[in-house]
Amino acid sequence: MTMKKNFKIWISSALFLTSMFGCHESFLEEKVYDTLTPLNFYKTEADMQAGVISVYNAMHSNDCWGRQVWLAAEYPGESSWPNNSGEAWRSELDQYTWTPSSTGFKTIWAGLFRMVNRANTVMQYADGITYATPANKDQILAETRFLRGLAYLTLVRFFDHVPYVTVENTNDLYPTNANTDDQVWDLIIDDFKYALSVLPPVQTGRNIGRATSGAAQTMLTKAYLTRAGKPWNKAEYWPLAAEEANKIINNAAYGYGLHANYEDVFSIANEHGKEYIFSMELESGINLGKDLPTFTGIRSGNQLKLDGWSSLVAETKFFDSMDPKDKRRNKTFVVSYNDIRGNGTVYEYPKTITLPHFNKLINADDNKATGTGDYATNLPITRYSDVLLMHSEAENESKGPSAEAVKGINMVRQRAGLTPLTAGSMTKESLRDAIIQERSWELCEEGHAYFDLKRQNAIIKRITNFKPTEKSYAFPVPQDELDVNPNLQQHPAYK
Question: Which parts of the sequence belong to the RagB/SusD domain (predicted)?
Answer without folding.
Answer: 350-456
